[in-house]
Write a structure and sequence with these properties.
6-stranded parallel beta sheet, 3-stranded antiparallel beta sheet, alpha/beta
């Protein structure tokens, strides 16, 4: 990439990209990618051929330049640019400290249906910790990709023969772990609580393959209580919505980890649904296990939200209100 980058000023900055073949994907259909950057950073982008003038407040101009150069670099590397990538570039570029080049390497999780790559620094750290450690915690708000990335890596490792099965679990807190009163067999009883995990798996496996793996026992989906007394060897284990596990449930679950296994524990400590007076096992685990060798913690924030940009703004608004209430 060759670019001309004049200093930011009230008159704008100028960027020039040499490869015209990548400009179509950089700008998006009907310049939609440019519009997303303009709206997200409150700047104006004027395109003349392969030159882009960015007009607005200097700090926002610089952010827009970082976003455009990052997206163009992706295209030069043969990687795609989709709306989620543009949203991520906008959010990350607002932070002048973050090096966008850190997200431009080849850290990719490959599954049968798609290739998945981290879109923020925290996501990248999380994946690296999952690859490095037997037990990794991902803590942060909804929409930051914690469970999605863990499920992608689990499917990849299962396909590669690195593990023999995937076990996904959640605390069935809405039913208080008392599922007997619900109609149907055990699969029908627990399915409503486990649906988000099925949704994650369907991103990486066809329905036919998923059902085949479920029937074979290569993939198990169950509430926390159902793993009591087991030793989970050669497995990729995911505990989702871990903020709703009690102290005893968390200790029980973590001590199921067996040889050749990897465990990911994900949750959002701002959305605890436990009864009043019951401490979240996830909150306590972070305090108790933070310096234990082989255990890693990755913290996510609103800037890591990779759903619609409005979700990030919603999370930020609640974070701001929470700070106001606490003060």
């Amino acid at each position: 990439m060759e670019s001309i980058h004049s200093p930011a000023s009230d008159d704008g900055i100028l960027l020039e990209f040499s490869d015209n073949r990548n400009l179509i994907d950089l700008c998006g259909a009907h310049d939609q990618n440019l519009s997303t950057i303009e709206d997200g950073l409150e700047i104006k982008i004027i395109r003349r051929g392969n030159r882009f003038a960015l007009i607005g407040e200097p700090v926002r101009q610089e952010a827009g330049g970082r976003a455009l150069k990052y997206l163009y670099q992706r295209l030069e590397q043969g990687r795609s640019v989709d709306p989620a990538d543009v949203d991520s570039a906008v959010r990350i570029s607002r932070d002048s400290v973050v090096d966008l080049n850190l997200l431009s390497s080849d850290l990719v999780i490959r599954t049968r249906r798609r290739a998945v790559e981290p879109k923020t620094k925290s996501q990248r750290d999380f994946v690296q910790q999952l690859l490095k450690n037997p037990l990794t915690f991902g803590i942060g708000p909804a929409g930051t990709g914690k469970t999605y990335l863990a499920a992608a890596l689990a499917v990849s490792m299962l396909s590669n023969g690195d593990v023999e099965r995937i076990i996904l679990s959640r605390p069935a807190v809405v039913a208080g772990e008392q599922l007997g009163f619900l109609p149907g067999d055990i699969r029908e009883k627990i399915d409503p609580f486990m649906q988000p995990l099925y949704d994650a798996l369907r991103s990486f496996l066809s329905s036919k393959t998923l059902n085949h793996y479920l029937d074979q026992g290569k993939i198990e989906i169950a509430p926390v209580a159902f793993v009591r007394g087991r030793t989970l060897d050669s497995s990729f284990v995911i505990l989702d919505e871990a903020q709703n596990a009690t102290r005893m449930q968390m200790k029980m679950f973590l001590t199921r980890l067996g040889h050749g296994s990897r465990m990911a524990v994900t949750g959002d400590i701002t959305q605890i649904d436990l009864p009043r007076g019951v401490t979240s096992g996830l909150v306590e685990a972070e305090k108790i296990l933070h310096d234990v060798k082989g255990i890693a913690f990755t913290r996510f924030a609103s800037r890591d939200v990779v759903r619609h940009d409005l979700v990030s703004r919603i999370v930020k608004a609640y974070e701001k209100d929470s700070t106001r209430v606490e003060s």
